[in-house]
Amino acid sequence: MPERLHLTRRSLVRALLLAGGTTPALMSVLRSPRAMSRKPIAPGVQEFNGDFRLNNSPARRGQIVNPGDIAATGPGASAIIIIGQHVFMLRENTTIEFFPVYFEKDGMVSGMLKVMTGAMLSVFGKTGKTTIATPAALIGIRGTGCYVESRPERTYACVCYGRADLASAPTGCLLETVTTTRHDQPRFIYPPGTPTPITPAPVIDHGDAELRLLEALVYRTPPFDAGGEPGDDRY
Questions:
Q1: In terms of pTM, does the model score above 0.90?
Q2: Up-side HSE of residue 22: CA atoms within 13 Å toward CB?
Q3: What is the DSSP track for 186-231?
Q4: 163 part of a folded domain
Q5: pLDDT tens digit string along 168-200?
């Protein structure tokens, strides 16, 4: 069972899935991503609610997010952004610097993504490579879904599917490599000086419906649905 569920998570997903305030083009993708897959991916800010800012200015739907931009959500706010073939869902009170150092090849943006505070659910294309950095952790991922929460006392990381290297940010030491299929190995990662730097964790504040939504925006489905119709939602 999940540890908790943000009201902002529930409200944003409901708005997107039920078309409350969502553009018809976005809803057509969500209903049938395979049928829409020949259309170009629409980059930039897809949807948000509440106080959402880019580089400290109010954001706009459709606004392009460039490498080095800083996105921030206020209390009760949330947002969904596409960069390349990567999709990011920001929770409330979250500040992220997108790829301050990056390279781009064949439309794939790669590099380091800094989650300074708050929480983010994201899905990544298979041909790019990204490191998600928090004050406590480095999460090296490629072609995965991942949920991260950055708090002063610890980082939470769930590699929802795929493979990732989990390392200490202050020391750079590899702590564990996880390979998962469906929220199998969530972890808490702690700053240096704690008795155990990495421990198992429960599934927190994210689930299958959101992953399906984010993958659909870039015309993909999560690997746990690859065999056919989606199964029962988890968490």
A1: no
A2: 24
A3: -EEE--TTSS-SEEE----S--HHHHHHHHHTTT---GGGTTSS--
A4: yes
A5: 999 999 999 999 999 999 999 999 888 999 999
